[in-house]
Amino acid sequence: MKRTALLTLLSISTFTTAVFAQQDSMMLDKIYHESFYQGQAYDNLHYLTKQIGHRIAGSPAADKAVAWSKSLMEKLDFDKVYLQDVKLPYWDRGPKEKAYIVGSKEPLNILALGGSVATPSKGITAEVIEVQLLSDLKKFGDQVRGKIVFVNKPWDESIVETGVAYGLNSSQRSRGPAEAAKLGAVAYLFRSLSSSTTDDYPHTGGTGYVKGIDSIPAMAISATSAIKLSEALKTNPHTKVYLEQHSAWKGMVQTHNVIAEWKGAEFPDKIITIGGHIDSWDVGEGAHDNGTGTMGTLDAIRTLMALGYKPKHTIRLVFYMNEENGVHGASTYGQVAKNKREQIVAAIESDAGGFAPRGFDIKASAERVVWMQQHWKPLFEQKFWVSRFLQGSPGVDSGVWGQHFPNTVMFNFRPDPHRYFDLHHTAKDVFEAVDKRELQSGVAAIASLLYLVDQQIEQL
Amino acid sequence: MKRTALLTLLSISTFTTAVFAQQDSMMLDKIYHESFYQGQAYDNLHYLTKQIGHRIAGSPAADKAVAWSKSLMEKLDFDKVYLQDVKLPYWDRGPKEKAYIVGSKEPLNILALGGSVATPSKGITAEVIEVQLLSDLKKFGDQVRGKIVFVNKPWDESIVETGVAYGLNSSQRSRGPAEAAKLGAVAYLFRSLSSSTTDDYPHTGGTGYVKGIDSIPAMAISATSAIKLSEALKTNPHTKVYLEQHSAWKGMVQTHNVIAEWKGAEFPDKIITIGGHIDSWDVGEGAHDNGTGTMGTLDAIRTLMALGYKPKHTIRLVFYMNEENGVHGASTYGQVAKNKREQIVAAIESDAGGFAPRGFDIKASAERVVWMQQHWKPLFEQKFWVSRFLQGSPGVDSGVWGQHFPNTVMFNFRPDPHRYFDLHHTAKDVFEAVDKRELQSGVAAIASLLYLVDQQIEQL
């Protein structure tokens, strides 16, 4: 090819790229305008948190959230809205837990972990073995028998990405009760997975037991109560603690994922899944976890619909049931999609709170991520303050169903991480902790990404 | 040069760069650890906001803030701590403003603007001319005479960078009173520069008059009160409003900038200025504006000192007086530095709140900014979630004294912009609106930048 011809072609190509970038940029302006001026995520979140409230999978409130979510979707221009059956075991906390230091009657703030068994109805009174690490437990050997194990490992405050700090301590919650039971402990207490080191809110979350080993009651204790207990143990190593909780598995129940489809004009059989989990823990109001993720992704689609957008691919909104304690909704979703041999080309999940949007972690090849950094990031960075387009892990629900879809490009929405683990799984996770501008800015970022994925996923 | 030799040189150079980057990365880890675990910005901010409170330049509280700041600096290992005399006119709000719709006695929430003259002591009662834009005023011509001008331009909610939205409306505050007075208005009211469109907090701020034109009382009205007044005017265009406020200039007073110097080992005569303004408006507690900026920059230096760092350049911390209504502190600082022919190689300012850190706007050549994007941004982006290194404007104080120092590289700290203008210049700007992790994360970002500037500014 002659040099001139090559240059001409190159400049046509550069020109075309520039024109497309210009069109995309104009579309993003419209999306942000629509989201900030007409956004409904904040008002919908208000209804979800205040009228329905917390909604653990299997509870009547979760059913109410499902029915209401379906009615919300039916008001929009989806081609199809339906419920997908999900069977799961229902765990119920029962009456409020009680805990105190025997003698002083100094109360300790605790929450049973999801999946925990109850104490005897008259509670447990026992001495306490305190360790910093689960692995320190072994050296106490037979002394553990009959005692309450108390794992008091503080949060690593130096880590800006609080999700990483959470991961460092999460085995305390997931494996702790089984490890303690193995050594004959009568109950398991551990310092909450909390980035706040100065408040008295315990953080709940799921745990599990191991077959063949006794199940013992398992509870999280607030940071300040953990400090209080640790001080008492320093003064008197024979300090006893009273623990009482009444949680139980209530058997299998029928619940649902809520699904809505917006048919693609060009590739109707190629699906982009977007959504988050509709269940929450049974404390607080499930505002950041995950009211913002469900109301946000719904509003991202509403935003595109309001702008008269026509998708190329079929966009499927999924509100997963039961991310918090079993992930049965995502498992079912994956099984059904696999059985139908669906083509799911991309997935967007929002389950990290409704704080100011920072970007997306992307499960895709390094080459694809670099392409997005080159083509998409400039559309967001300076103007919309969204700049994180890094290779990373998908959300929990996408990760579970994605096991059947290894080639699906997955986006995990990342809002600012500083404050999330202050309120995660606590009574503090309420509507008032969500800022409207931050939430609608996130809706706009997600809607913009959805638009770009729909337009350009074939070019990746 | 032979190809092999060149390659060897290149790889030595790449290797050296990598080693330095590794050292920098380790230093940043230490800085973040120190800031999150030993940081004092949050506790100092608590004292400043709760024990001293708001502190308009010239007030006794501002003097108290100066004396206390000096004592804070004296506790650290600075080589020199001193006050720099600043003369300025003191404006005082006087007793709380009153405003209501005549007849209904419906109260309106207003704040006098800094620099405003008072109403007559018995207030002003007059009809109202409402416009959206200042420029619309002219078409009312002689009808404006004797009336209250009410500029009711809403905030542009679609702009993520709220500072830009603020800039779009700021002439309402700065030029509005003079424009209205020119047409014979008896008072000036305008919708507060607020990103919150749903609250009843007026936002104060500075204004000015024009020589030869009467000065008329000038006030900001809250968003919801503006809406209420606008509705009343729709129902009855002859609606009258009562306004009463007692603000006044109280003459010249002697105040101070607070300055501390940490002598450089290698280039003692080359100065890096860092700081923010210590004064605030006379409502709220001046927490985000600018308690976080002063306590944050002080703590950034403390962080480096605690790590045993020895600066190459002289690091000069400046708490400027009077950024809010006159910028006399920065003017004085610039004049003195100019007279002394000082070499100020770089400046860092923090005056945009204490929200989650996003990065820095940089006043430097495009080439220098690109160099920082290549060398510094990778140290922050993935791990510390700080990624904004863009060419931009300096802060207000640096901008003022920087007129004498056109070659100084200037950094303007940029925290997340979503919530700042909800509380800017209002009673809502209190300690409780600051999150400890967000603040200390910003301190670490600023300390890291200060370290990099001190180490590498000669390489730029």
Automatic annotation (TrEMBL), chains A, B:
Domain of life: Bacteria
SUPFAM superfamilies found in the cross-reference section: Zn-dependent exopeptidases (SSF53187)
Swiss-Prot/TrEMBL keywords: Carboxypeptidase, Endoplasmic reticulum, Glycoprotein, Golgi apparatus, Hydrolase, Lysosome, Metal-binding, Metalloprotease, Protease, Secreted, Signal, Zinc, Zymogen
Chief location of this protein within or outside the cell: endoplasmic reticulum
Annotated signal peptide: 1-21
UniProt domain Peptidase M28: residue ranges: 257-445
Transmembrane segments: none
InterPro entries: CPQ (IPR039866), Peptidase_M28 (IPR007484)
Keyword Endoplasmic reticulum: yes
Cellular compartments annotated: Endoplasmic reticulum; Golgi apparatus; Lysosome; Secreted
Quaternary assembly: Homodimer. The monomeric form is inactive while the homodimer is active.
The name this protein goes by in its record: Carboxypeptidase Q
